[in-house]
Each structure stands twice: as C-alpha cells, then as structure tokens.
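I am writing to request your help with a piece of structural work I have in hand. I am sending you one protein, given as its amino acid sequence and as whole-number tokens for its backbone shapes. Kindly check, if you would, that the fold set down in the tokens agrees with what the sequence suggests. You will find the record immediately after this paragraph:
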Amino acid sequence: MQIIVNCCVYWQGGIVMIQKPRRGWWYLPGGKVDPGEIWIEAAAREVLEETGLAVQDLRLRGIHLVQIEPGPDVEGREQAIIQFSAARATGNLLTQSKEGHVAIVKPEEVAHQPMNEGDRRMVEAVLRADAQGLDTLFYGKFRYTAEHQLLDWRLLPETDIAAALEIGLR
C-alpha cells in the first residue's frame, strides 16, 4: 500500500494549495513517503519542497484509506492518505513548484475548486473542525473508479461535520 502525506497550511487568510497540471485539480501540498521516513517528517519535507514554506507544530488530522477500482488498462490499488495541519509556517511562498501552480485558497472557496471529490471532503472536514475549534482526528474510506470518480465514502467520527459534508457535497 502506498502511503501519501499532505498538510493543511494556513497562510495569509487562506490555505496553501497546488493546482497540478494533469487534471487541473487542486491539492494540499504533499506526496509519497520515502522508505524509512516518518510520516510527520515527510509532510514537512513535502510542504517545503512544494511551497517554500517551513512548517512547525504539525498535528495529525486524518487517516484515510483510498481504494481505486481496476479499469480496462489500469490495475486497482490502495493508498493511505495521512493528513496533517500546521499550526505555524515561515518562509516565502512560491507561486510555482515542480508540482504545479501554488496559491492561497480561501476556506469558503474550497467547495468551488476543481478537486478530487474525496480530497475535497478530507479538506472540508479539517477546515470545519478548525473553524469550530475542534482538534478532531478523522478516519475515512474513499472508493473511486479507475477514472477517479468517487463511488462512495465514509468519514468517522460520525459528527455533525461528517453529516454536513454528506448533505452539502453530494
């Protein structure tokens, strides 16, 4: 199983996101964990490489299983997405990285950005928890077609945040 980390970095009234050119979708900064690397260190490394920002005081915010169904020319696969948020960041924000266009997205704009729908739910859960002052750790399961269309998902704990995502993001 491939392990992916990402990090919600608050910066200048929004969160730092990267628009990757392949599909034009927006993502939190992150990437693959190197062999032998500790997840939290991988998240800090990926943020620095992709955004130019050094993050401190990372908190674990989500552990999510992602299942991608096999397709005609593609094997199915599983990934774990380990999500963090950063309490502090320093440095100079890049506008472009090797991964794509780097920008600040206002929390209320996340719902309208072109994104992977499971990622949108993961990000929205953290943003809503932070807005309510909650330090919730979310556990999720997301299943996709080979073309990355979200088939079904579940988010625990089953709080009012999870319920609001279920209703508001259908």
Remarks:
- The longest helix spans residues 117-131.
- The chain has a mean pLDDT of 93.
